[in-house]
Amino acid sequence: MHNDTPRKRSQGLAHDIVTTLTQRILLGQLAPGEKLPSESAIVGEYGVSRTVVREALSKLQAAGLVETRHGVGTFVLARDQRQGLHLNHDTAVSVRGILELRLGLETQAAALAALRRSEAQLQHMREALDDYQASLANNDSSVEPDVRFHQLIAQATGNTYFTDVIQHLGNSVIPRTRINAEERGDTDLMKLGQLANLEHEAILNAIRRQDPDAARAAMLLHLSNSLERMTGE
């Protein structure tokens, strides 16, 4: 087996760094204007080469999250400087990449939504899942209500960073939209939708009870199962 070429391994390592740093930026752990760790520090933290680090930083810059000032360092851009979040093929090249990003973001969003949601927001979530179930029953696309449900959870956090990220991800938050229907088949898609529906209901029930730990666990289970269903891992 010679599939694990140095170039492919380098791309994988760089992607891991991009995913981690993107999460830290979007969650505010690296604040706007803050200088990223030096190349040497990142090399030491991740145990990778300078080439890998430079590739990762280049991808973050291409995604509009940071800017590099020659001779000074790389800095996190403010939200109004980012011209929208470009979570495209540079930062989320696969279903796995998107789901890994969501694991960090949406588990916390669900916990905060459980603590902060209003009755009106709870009702809108219920309506989204009702629409989702109706779409499944009619063999229609359930992508729109699925996306809406996740966006409503983000909105219920009261934190615009979560809302912005999910909004910019758009339909790519739903991995079924990335699957070739001819490969999977309608029957498989229906089964996946029904399984996801049960997981959605568990998330909603925890948010209704205002139980942040249960909401976090339910979202983690949903996204972990989604990762397994979509990637076979």
DSSP, total strands: 2
State the fourth-level CATH superfamily of the largest domain: GntR ligand-binding domain-like
Into which percent range does the helicity of residues fall?
A: 55-70%
The number of helical elements comes to: 10
- CATH fold-level label of the largest domain: Four Helix Bundle (Hemerythrin (Met), subunit A)
Which CATH class of the largest domain? Mainly Alpha
Strand order, largest beta sheet:
1-2
Assigned CATH architecture of the largest domain: Up-down Bundle
> How many strands, which pairing sense, and closed or not: the largest β-sheet?
2 strands, antiparallel
Mean pLDDT: 79
Oligomeric composition of the shown chains: single chain
How many domains? 2
Report on this structure:
The protein has 233 residues and is mainly alpha-helical. It folds into two domains: 6-81, Winged helix-like DNA-binding domain superfamily/Winged helix DNA-binding domain (Arc Repressor Mutant, subunit A, Orthogonal Bundle); 95-231, Four Helix Bundle (Hemerythrin (Met), subunit A). 66% of the residues lie in helices and 3% in strands. The chain contains ten helices and two strands, in the order H-H-H-E-E-H-H-H-H-H-H-H. It has helices spanning 6-26, 39-46, 50-62, 95-116, 119-137, 143-156, 160-169, 181-184, 186-208, 212-231, and strands spanning 66-69, 73-76. A two-stranded antiparallel ribbon has the order 1-2. Strand 1 and strand 2 (73-76) form a beta hairpin. Helix 4 runs parallel beside helix 9, helix 5 runs antiparallel to helix 9 (186-208) and helix 6 packs antiparallel against helix 7. The longest helix has 23 residues, at 186-208. The protein is elongated, with a radius of gyration of 19 Å. 33% of the residues are buried. The model is unreliable at 88-93 and 176-187 (pLDDT under 50).
